[in-house]
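Action item from last week, closing it out:
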Amino acid sequence: MRIAGKLALLLATVCAGAASADIGEVETRSGVLRGFASAHQPGVTVFQGVAFAAPPTGELRWRPPAAPIPFAGVKEAGRIGPACWQARNSDASLYARGNLHRSEDCLYLNVFSGAAQPDERLPVLVWYHGGGNTTGHAGPPIFDGANLAARGAVVITANYRLGPLGFMAHPALSAESPAGVSGNYGLLDQLAALEWVRDNIAAFGGDPERVTIFGQSAGGTDVCLLQASPLSEGLIHRVIGQSPVCIKLDTELDEAHAAGVAWARRLGVDGGDAATLADLRAVPAEQLIATTGGASAPVIDGWLIPDRPYDLFESGAHNRIPVIVGGMSEEYHGLQHAAGPISEAELDEFLAGTFGGEASAVKANYGAALDRSPLDARKQILGENNFLLDARMWARLVAGHGNEAWVYYFTRPAPVFRLYVADDPDLTGNGGERLWGAYHSGDLAYVFDNLDLVGLDWEAADHALADTVADYWVNFAATGNPNGPGLPPWPGYDPQADVVQILDAEVRSERHPASENLQHLEELYLRSR
């Protein structure tokens, strides 16, 4: 946000502060909620721990989410809901989340409203977190939506079921389903959050006809799949995908069924009838999460995801809405930050397993990375063949059907810190040294403009970039175009020119720095389909 924009925001929030009480209590279809003023952004009202579905427990485990339970009186919305069940990860991880309060009763969202009056009809952004669809939640400080909302928006952050509780498919589950499918419960939760937005967000000052879904990593994958799904038609109007891996998804329902049966056997449950499901639903959630082999990925079920995502986008059988999509220049330097050195022979083995007879041709494109180390080469190849290629293909396919797409390439090296543990950020004990470049998830604090809430050793250039990125995201939610006064111009994506927006200390437009590599990787993918 430029200086003039910050002054305007300050004046607006001072004026809005007195009026913010007008949306302090909101009547939803389930009951009346009382919010509270944001602790760090005047004029923004926050509602935490809002149930958007009934607890998916007991007989509702492994079923589509049911309507939220109505309540009487006024409910204080001042505490985030529990995280969905997940294993605790290591405190030595960049992605450490600490000792979360975890529960199957976890279908809650948080609302950050920048509206001073309930009739403002501000654009709405709905956030789905990353974590491989196995970890994460909507409530850490890095996802506090107040600084985005203060730009003139309503921001939602939502939980969804994870791991086997969110994605297990099983023949017995498909048999009891009216749609004849199973799995994808986490995606159905995300759709239920969007239905809650459609039904309730106007009372919070939001516009149900301008809803942008955005997510990163697994969340970026999921919003891509939601764009491809017929079940989201009318619920979403724009999409932002940060570091997605969606387009090449190819897991079919039969394969997922077989994996679910094998996993259930590890739990000591066999068979395919109603008694089997009763036994599975009686297993404690902690045991489910601790049992290896549980599902953690969406499946092509023929219903929510009717076909392979590439085919849906290529044929135009997707929601025809504008998209922002991109990735990080050093994705795997974060994801594999604990990986030990590998030899060139081990690199060759990886390449052969991934690319077969094209391994040598791929390796030849990464000589500079290989000069640094075989591990660096593997990391760069993984990042480009997964996140960056996925983003580029998604944009190309959307643009090919006449819808606008904007592609970014985030290259600003971020300080290294525990992203989700704000009170203990110093992961490596060196005060946030920028060890891993623009690593996977390093964009999160910038997108939410939360550098004052999380992290270490931010510089003026980081704050300027966060202002710009957050402005782009809110402009896009408002108008379907990220451009606006005072911002570096961002051209729409033309697959032939392959010009992208470089997000760094200097924000600029140029041909994708990895263009030739990505073109080669896409050709290999298309040849193998």
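Closing note: Residues 3-528 form a domain with the Rossmann fold fold (CATH 3.40.50.1820).
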